[in-house]
Amino acid sequence: MSVAHTPNPAVVEAGPPLADAVIDVRDLRMRYGDKDVLSGVDFQVRAGEVIALLGPNGAGKTTTIEILEGFRMRSAGRVSVLGVDPAKGDESWRARLGVVLQSWRDHGKWRVRELLQHFGTYYAPFSTDRVARPWPADDLIETVGLTEQAGQTINSLSGGQRRRLDVAIGIVGRPALLFLDEPTVGFDPQARREFHDLVHRLADIDETAILLTTHDLDEAEKLADRILILAGGRIIADGSADALSRRMSTEAEVKWSRGGEMFVHSTVDATAYVRKLFEQYGDEIGDLEVRRASLEDTYMELVRQFESGGGDALIREFEESGR
């Protein structure tokens, strides 16, 4: 990949990262010509966290990921990935990263087990006493749910099976950090659910940190421990889906039925309101539903506010909230 800008060496040093941070980004900036794509991005990711990076097209998501992966040189700022400046990452550092791209081409005549065994040979020299690399092919195949397809050629796999193989290739080296780009595009609902279970197993069992980009906000809400929203080259929100929803919506909508009639009420304290309903009507209450703002509602509102000229106020509110 071509390097669009050669930075001043004085701003390349990553600086000391947080003690438990897998990714530590401070004041990350990127400029192409006279255009600022990233204008001071700050965030951290810890071991075992699943982080979703969201943002409208052109927000700087791809640039941020490419800088973290060491494929693009930044203009300024401090970045540490697995304790190393990505601009200086060597082969042993890259062996600890996993990357699953949105699309990937290979030779369709390879068989699943053979392909994974082949890729595994690249990681074997980087085994340590703590982490045995690569992941044994048959164990990996079972983990991603391809046991029945282990002897099949790649061009015989379905789209969902092919995507599972993409993930297997990305994690064959047992990475400490995994990048996922639109991981479930083309999946049917069952395959998507199984993939989500796999992501959670990687984070919970191996403590793999996972940074994913997706346009599927429902998927981000189900998968991510934290959501980062990038707009205009800045992080304008960072928190769990619930925390972001509470930040943007002061009222919840309570729906219930009584005596065959439906009722709707908006309130800032849904818990207290529901308690009063049951104190007053008891078992007469039916079909109770409490709806708070979804991640999609929150995301759309944040982006709308930013694009309507409220970007500075959003960033100021975010910074003052202590993230």
TrEMBL record:
Keywords: Antibiotic resistance, ATP-binding, Nucleotide-binding, Transport
SUPFAM superfamilies: P-loop containing nucleoside triphosphate hydrolases (SSF52540)
Stretches assigned to the ABC transporter domain: 23-257
GO cellular component, as recorded: plasma membrane
Main location (coarse class): membrane
One matching Pfam family: ABC_tran
GO terms for MF: ATP binding; ATP hydrolysis activity
Thylakoid among keywords: no
Entry keyword S-adenosyl-L-methionine: no
Protein's cellular compartments: Cell membrane
Signal peptide (from-to): none
Topology within the bilayer: Peripheral membrane protein
Protein name (record): ABC-2 type transport system ATP-binding protein
Species: Phytomonospora endophytica
Record lineage: Bacteria, Bacillati, Actinomycetota, Actinomycetes, Micromonosporales
